[in-house]
Specification:
Family: Belongs to the YciB family.
Order of helices and strands: HEEHHHHHHHH
Main location: membrane
Shape: globular
Distance between the termini: 21 Å
Radius of gyration: 19 Å
Subcellular location: Cell inner membrane
Strand order of the largest sheet: 1-2
Structural class: mainly alpha
Protein name: Inner membrane-spanning protein YciB
Keywords: Cell inner membrane, Cell membrane, Membrane, Transmembrane, Transmembrane helix
């Protein structure tokens, strides 16, 4: 039984991307400042990260409250934000938060890769109801997405280790979002070739 509740697409998008936009704005406002709290100096990046942690938990909770469902990907992201964001604030070291996307995408690539080695598409288990498609199509999409996630993990490592914090924040806010959007936009022919019409899926 599916207990999911309908939610307006605009509201869902706002809850998913809102924390990222808020982090970006907070960073722009605070990046030139250093704040002394309890005898320790914190730069704007660390404080923006501190605000991002409760915000991602709040929006994830609201999504669950409004829809009755939160994806495993969203849960994993929230957990890693708390862990690596918390380490960033606690140790006053921005490197931990910058590593977070690497861990997330490497984790996703690893999980999908394990499924492929077992001859399965874990992606199909998660998204089949939203995107009805033949098994062959799911296997192709899973292989492509595994490589894509692995590439994003490597790219994040290269950018945060070799470029400025400003460049990394822009990459995290815009680059990753645009890359994921473009990836799925380029899979149109795959969905068209292997897609299953709703009528056929229901046996009509």
């Amino acid at each position: 039984m599916d207990d999911r509740k309908p939610i307006k697409p605009g509201l869902k998008l706002a809850l998913e991307l809102g924390p990222i936009a808020a982090f970006f704005i907070a960073y722009l406002m605070l990046r030139e400042h250093v704040f002394t709290i309890a005898g320790r100096d914190y730069d704007g990046f660390v404080l923006a990260t501190a605000g991002f942690i409760p915000l991602i938990l709040l929006t994830t909770g609201l999504l669950w409250r409004l829809t009755g469902h939160v994806s495993k990907m969203q849960v994993a992201t929230a957990v890693l934000v708390v862990v690596f964001g918390g380490l960033t604030v606690w140790l006053n070291d921005e490197r931990f938060f910058k590593m977070k996307p690497t861990i997330i995408y490497a984790l996703f690539a690893g999980v999908l890769g394990v499924g492929l080695l077992r001859g399965q598409s874990y992606l199909q288990f998660v998204m089949e109801e939203m995107v009805p498609m033949q098994r062959a199509g799911w296997m192709i999409l899973t292989r492509r997405l595994t490589g894509f996630f692995a590439g994003l993990a490597v790219l994040n490592e290269v950018i945060w280790r070799t470029m400025s914090t400003d460049m990394w924040v822009n990459f995290k806010t815009f680059g990753l979002t645009i890359a994921i959007f473009l990836f799925f936009m380029t899979q149109g022919k795959l969905f068209e070739k292997y897609g299953i019409e709703a009528s056929k899926k229901d046996g009509v």
